[in-house]
Amino acid sequence: MNLIKFLDEFTTDKMQEPMTCRRAMFGQLGSIGKKAALAAVPFGLATASNKAMAQSSGDVVGVLNLALTLEYLEDEFYAMALDSGVLSSNAKAEAIYQQISKHESQHVDFLTAAIEGAGADPVAKPSFDFTVGGAFDPFNENGAGQATAYAQLLALAQAFEDTGVRAYKGQAANLMGSAGVLTAALQIHSVEARHASEIRRLRGLEGWITGNQRGAGMPEATQAVYNGEDNISQGGVDVTTLGSGSPFTMDAATQAYDEILTRDEAVTIASLFIES
Fold first, then answer.
1. With b meaning 16 or more CB within 10 Å and e meaning fewer, what string describes 174-186?
2. CATH of span 3-271
3. pLDDT tens, 86-124?
4. What is the SS3 assignment for 268?
5. Exposed, middle or buried, 2 (CB in 10 Å: 0-12/13-18/19+)?
6. Helix, strand, coil % (nearest 5) of the chain?
7. 274 pairs with which residues across the strands?
8. Contact by Cβ (8 Å): 210, 254
9. pLDDT tens digits, 40-60
10. Can you give the pTM of this predicted structure?
């Protein structure tokens, strides 16, 4: 089932229609991000009971299926990366991808069981195209060469992980009212954040995001993943005015906080890689 159609059925939020041309979407990604509002609690993946699901069944099941779709994407990406042989010349990167791949597979199994346990149907796994219609060659299937493919593998992983962290957090409001859901949120969200930091360091970057900078070597089209990260107002306070005698810099203020992606923004980014 198409992700956007699913969310229309299982959530109260009206999703935007999918673009028919993913190449066109690739060109537009840089402008889709909106400045995000502060969310106090990261979005989560639930071991929630049927009772907790019943409290807000549409929203919670929709959130879980959005999470499952993002995990499907990451799970398949890391599995294909390991099978491609592109990482074979870098033992450190290969070991990191192997460990992250295990985590993503566990998240898929966990979410599937949680949704089924709530009496709902898990969204079907989409078909993915990580080349974006030929724009990328991360698995070196079309002759890009090992060096280019390796760089693209790392860049795509960074985009996926940074998207996941912000998207999970952005669904907090739909999961309020259930301690079990929020507990699972903190557990899994923090692991995804560790993935993001590890991948960024593999690329020679700091483990955190500064302002709305996507980082050296990231395609311009991935800017949507980072738009809104330059927010300096937290809980109504301009954090650049804080600090003992020396106000925090803009860089330090934005590095200290992650911002959200809305459901629409997360789906638009993920849909770039979804064929059906």
1. bbeebebbbebbe
2. 1.20.1260.10
3. 999 999 999 999 999 999 999 999 888 878 887 889 999
4. helix
5. middle
6. 55, 0, 40
7. 128
8. yes
9. 222 333 333 333 333 344 478
10. 0.78
